């Protein structure tokens, strides 16, 4: 795979990185989708996969994790408190394969909303995503707050990063998945982003100012000798260099997964902790597909 390689690239905590990604040098992994692999050494070792999606690609659509047959039931494997089934946890690659088996030409997939329960032994079968989550006009989970930082793909092909959606428009949505916080707004780091300097694996979505391009950033972390992780200000800088004006921090940590279809199988663009030999089953995922 060709790489957009930036060595000795300083990630400033407040000031944006003045080194835009050269998308002409990135590899096109699918029609309308390019992938850039960043290898940073300053101020720390950091590996980042950045995907750019052309939202004007003919036939491009989004779908997300759907209601399982058990939707609405009380989770029988979680007894700390009453929690209801909203999704079934699956690896992002399995989600991609399931959608392809259903007849969709899925070309990329990534984990999305944070979810619970997340307590020992961390192997619960089902999930309940945080905030408001919608797939193909159907509400998957609705823990609606006044501000739900989310990515939205509308039926008319437009996409947005927003804090709210009118309830009377739920039926017009391909996908709406809630994240943790909006970290970049009109090109400026938010207070929420500046407050989070802890280093972790990270997943974030971004949009260009004209809403032509979507950016998905997957930063590896917690892997000495490979990648130490990113802060939220780091994510903002990477997003800005990619071309984003707005960005939302999604579910990171061990859930961070960015995939594309190579014609035969899902290919993971980032790397989970190889020493654990584990790819997490996530409670929420998003797929990008082309209508046949």
Structure report:
With 292 residues, the chain is mainly β. It has one domain (23-290). The protein has three helices and 21 strands. The strands form four sheets. An eight-stranded antiparallel sheet has the order 1-2-3-17-16-18-14-15. Strands 4-21-6-19-20 form a five-stranded antiparallel sheet, with helices on one face. β19 and β20 form a beta hairpin. It is globular, with a radius of gyration of 18 Å.
Count of helix runs:
3
Number of strands: 21
- Give the C-alpha Rg: 18 Å
Largest sheet composition: 8 strands, antiparallel
Mean pLDDT metric:
92
Work out the strand percent.
Answer: 25-35%
Enumerate the strands of the largest sheet in spatial order, edge to edge or round the barrel. Answer: 1-2-3-17-16-18-14-15
Distance between the termini: 27 Å
Order of helices and strands: EEEEEHEEEEEEEEEEHEEHEEEE
Helical fraction: under 10%
Overall body shape: globular
Low-confidence sequence ranges:
5-18
Number of domains: 1
Question: What class do helices, strands and sheet pairing give?
Answer: mainly beta
């Amino acid at each position: 795979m060709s790489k957009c390689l930036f060595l000795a690239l300083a990630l400033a905590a407040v000031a944006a990185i003045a080194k835009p990604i050269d998308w002409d040098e990135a590899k096109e992994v699918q029609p309308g989708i390019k992938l850039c692999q960043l290898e940073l050494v300053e101020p720390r070792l950091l590996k980042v996969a950045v995907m750019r999606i052309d939202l004007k690609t003919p036939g491009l659509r989004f779908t997300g994790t759907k209601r399982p047959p058990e939707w609405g039931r009380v989770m029988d494997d979680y007894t700390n408190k009453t929690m209801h089934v909203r999704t079934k946890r699956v690896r992002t690659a399995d989600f991609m394969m399931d959608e392809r088996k259903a007849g969709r030409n899925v070309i990329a997939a990534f984990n999305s909303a944070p979810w619970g329960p997340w307590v020992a032994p961390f192997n619960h079968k089902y999930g309940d995503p945080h905030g408001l989550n919608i797939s193909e006009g159907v509400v998957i989970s609705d823990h609606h707050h006044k501000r739900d930082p989310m990515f939205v793909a509308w039926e008319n092909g437009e996409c947005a990063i927003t804090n709210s959606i009118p309830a009377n428009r739920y039926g017009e949505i391909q996908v709406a998945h809630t994240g943790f916080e909006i970290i970049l707004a009109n090109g400026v780091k938010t207070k929420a982003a500046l407050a989070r300097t802890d280093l972790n694996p990270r997943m974030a979505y971004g949009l260009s100012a004209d809403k032509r391009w979507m950016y998905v950033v997957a930063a590896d972390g917690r892997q000495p000798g490979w990648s130490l992780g990113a802060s939220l200000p780091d994510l903002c800088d990477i997003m800005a260099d990619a071309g984003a004006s707005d960005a939302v921090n999604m579910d990171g940590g061990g859930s961070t997964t960015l995939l594309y279809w190579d014609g035969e199988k899902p290919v993971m663009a980032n790397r989970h902790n190889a020493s654990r030999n584990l790819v997490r089953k996530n409670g929420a995922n998003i797929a990008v597909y082309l209508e046949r």
